[in-house]
Amino acid sequence: MNLRLFFTIAFCSLMFSGFSQINSVGLIGSASPFGWDADTNLVKGIDSTYSMKINLVAGECKFRANDAWDINWGDVGFPFGTGTQGGANIPVKVAGEYSIDFNAITGAYEFEITSPIGIIGNATPKGWDEDTNMYQDSIDDNKFYIVLNLKLGECKFRFNDDWARNWGAKDFPAGVGVQNGDNIPVAAAGRYRIDFDTLTGAYAFTEIPEFKTISIIGDGTPGGWSNDTPLKKDAANPDLWTGNVDLVNGFAKFRADSAWTYNWGGTTFPSGIATPNGDNIPVTAGRYQISFNVKTLEYNFLLIPAYSAIGIIGTANPGGFDNPTPLTADPDNEGVWKVRVVLLTGDAYFKADDDLWAGSGFPNGTAEIDGAPIPVPAGEYKISFNTITGEYTFEELVIYSTVGIIGPATPLATWDTDVDMFQDANDEMLWYLPSILLNEGECKFRAEDSWAVNWGAKDVASQEDISGIGAQDGPNFKVKAGVYGITLRAVKNEGEYVFGPEVKTSELLNYSVVKLFPNPVSDKLNIEITEAKLRGELNVTIFSNQGARVYSNTMNIQEQASIQIGDLTPGVYWLHMTNGTYIVGKQFVVTK
Questions:
Q1: Average pLDDT for residues 478-486, to the nearest whole number?
Q2: Would you say domain 214-293 falls under CATH 3.30.70.120?
């Protein structure tokens, strides 16, 4: 398969930490017997399936391979879910004995608790072939419950996976089941909490609603009490809804599906925990970044300052305190301002109209009005400042005059002379060779024809696309003989590389086809794709600066999508995407 490469080249191959390298799969976490200190290994089945029975306590856990974090899976779903590489910890909500099944290829998992009471039927996930066990109430041994996605159909309760003792009735969503009673009709598909009492036979199916829209309404909003102002569902967290809205002094509420059936209010501003059918929220005039979580009911109104100009001043600024270096507003990310500039060793401040923002962290941090100065070493930087959150980052740029590939695998077959690469006209940090014939052997990248700056990695390149993050003084690349198209994005201490198939210069697309915002980011990273050829189903992966895979998922992206990255530690990361025809990668910074 030939992949045409973007100038923002990245990688797509699972060989970076491939499934072929999995020797064992274990469960680890606070819910497991050994906590976060050691794995409890699952038993290998056919293909890539693993299973085991285990006693768990309430807590969290993850699956991982080879007793190491290089390959690990997690998700927020319980007792069912699909784990993704570097995903969230799996919440184990109830202690008990569980039968666990896991597929290392698809990431699909199931935690089934050992229980005498189950629910069965074509309305349930397992149909009439198998019970889905229910959880026993911690206070009343006769009561059982579970949360399930149900289909239109029928179901019954039964004891010990056997028809000798079962309960049913004609009533829905609540009723009293009797021995050998009618199948319970599930009149509407949806997500339900199911409660059942074995002593009385009483049962209840309580729907957990899924909303089509969430909006804000009220005399403090643009539409008044007559017209909703819609919020946008977060692509990575379906419970979170956000939007930038101009408000006036008045009141507001959140509601679902443009109706009062489900609505939420509160008494505090600019943040709080809403209550169903609660009081109107008092709001103050201004433009706000609004968020509302329909699960936790947490809401926030973050004021978007209306600055007309922002510049850098201070002893680090070439113009000192009197002549600010201006930042430019990001047209795709309201509240974010950016600049590329050469700074001196010294202190820096962000001057926003009459406000002076600063913070003591470097190269990233959170600024405050009248905060401590930002200490900056001399260098050239890409600077980003978010006036909504105060987050900032200084990304140092190191622009080399030459970058080459060297070693016995190159056409020169020597460690003495580099084969120089071409520098991209639109991205000074990107270097490429559209076509080069390599011998079987070893090679490395280096800058300025000197070993002072060089990049290597342990990955083995082949005729398939292999790519990743090369580290300063890393191991030599081991390559097989063949014709390659090679790309390297040379940053200060690491290089993002691809050993791909031979490519034509005309097939390389511009660096700007993918935009990430906000950048720096602390919670939600937004992705925007402006090139139609890249849109569709994409494999999305995030790598740390050290090359560790911290997130992996398959997403359908048409124009925009979002990823929750709140669990990542502050630092520099690389986001990589591929649709099987094109590959693209971009750098972003996480701050807290």
A1: 83
A2: no
